[in-house]
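Sharing a chain and its predicted structure for anyone who wants a worked example. Both blocks are below, sequence first, tokens second.
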Amino acid sequence: NFAPCFRSAFFGTVFLAALRKDSVYSYSDLAVVVFRSSDGGLSWGLPVVVNDEDIFNDRDWLAADALGRIHVVRSPRILRPDGSGNWDRPVYLHTSTDGGQSYGMSTQVNTILPLGSAGGSARGLAVDPAGTLLAGIQSSPYQNASSNGAGVGKQGHVYRSTVGSATFEGPFPFTRDGVFIAPPGGIDDGTQPFPRLRIHTDVSGRTTTYVSWIGEEGGGESGVYLGRLAHGSTAFDAPRRVVPGPLGSFRLTTLAIDPAG
């Protein structure tokens, strides 16, 4: 099993989402499954299938909300039938309303795509106390045959669900003009943003969404950045550079928020 994603939901129940490799010879057939433990992870039941269409699924993320619903996103890679060798990269959401015993039909998260994008891959999923979902997506360029559909684009976006609805609004870029910051004359070194999302809720119920990512800075170096999306806003604050000075090349981040914010 690959790409595990743990989340504790309610009454000590733990869920683990994974990609199940169904082909011995390749990674072109990856199913999305979720394991469930009702005793804090001491024992586990059989995997419940979220999606098994004999396709390349990728980047599964999982979140549980206050109502006990389990949300899973996946990022399939679908070859276009036009012979170009390019791939479409939709991101789909599946929700369980019965405690993880079954998962519903897919809802596409990124129905509205940034200009020049084929979609992308999910790199984070978070849910606030009201049940609003936020998905962080790393965009893939429309012409992507050379990268096999991989999300090597420099843009990062967040999509936000409307409460009580299976639709998403966005994309909301968390970088200036949707393009990662590079110094004048900066060189494209293939840096990928790998965004990570967290939501903080204050005592009044207002939420702040935080996203961390890797930004290309040229010369083989990349920095760590942080953006904030205020409650009800559709625009992220100007990015903040977390790592001061040229300290080398960074690749992956993770993010945590304490109760005080």
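Comments welcome. The first strand starts at residue 2 and ends at 8.
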